[in-house]
UniProtKB/TrEMBL annotation:
This is GCN5-related N-acetyltransferase. InterPro entries: Acyl_CoA_acyltransferase, GNAT_dom, MshD_Acetyltransferase. The lineage of its organism: Bacteria, Pseudomonadati, Pseudomonadota, Gammaproteobacteria, Alteromonadales. Residues 1-155 form the N-acetyltransferase domain. CDD domains: NAT_SF. Keywords: Transferase. One of its GO terms (molecular function) is acyltransferase activity, transferring groups other than amino-acyl groups.
Length: 157
């Protein structure tokens, strides 16, 4: 399993994963493509296994390019038949140093990480364990249900 920056050739595979993971969203290819095209604000990575994209993660710099960056783990998804194998954890753990390296290239360090997710999403435990993120607040009926805002504070390198 290899975690690496997303390439243009990965867009179709990542869009297929998006379509399966986020069923209430539409235009998966366009969504993934516009995020890919927004580099370096959006930093996209894939998990590749035997030449197949089996997962992706998108990190976003918030509120401008700052000396101490606040980033959001914007999306994380893994193909259904690869879930439960630690790929989500690996995407977080192996892409985050690459994110920090990209920030350094732009003269920034990482300060905080934001995550928003549905209040009923089991991935909250993953974000807590891997990032140390804690729930700050619940936002009622934001998208399709209640969302929680989680923050991992003071994660600078």
């Amino acid at each position: 399993m290899k975690i690496r920056f997303m390439k243009k050739a990965d867009l179709e595979g990542a869009a297929s994963i998006h379509k399966l993971a986020f069923i209430r969203q539409k235009n998966s290819f366009e969504w993934i493509q516009c995020n890919f095209n927004a580099f370096p604000r959006f930093l996209n990575f894939v998990a590749e296994k035997k030449g197949e994209v089996v997962g992706y993660i998108t990190w976003v710099q918030k509120s401008g390019f700052r000396p101490e960056a606040v980033i959001e783990l914007e999306q994380l998804a893994v193909l259904p038949n690869f879930q439960g194998q630690g790929i989500g954890r690996k995407l977080i753990n192996e892409s985050l140093p690459l994110v920090k390296g990209q920030l350094l290239l732009n003269g920034s360090t990482l300060k905080h990480i934001l995550v928003t997710t549905r209040a009923d999403n089991f991935a909250q435990q993953l974000y807590k364990k891997t990032l140390g993120a804690e729930i700050e607040t619940t936002i009622k009926n934001l998208y399709s249900a209640d969302e929680v805002l989680m923050i991992a504070r003071n994660v600078s390198i």
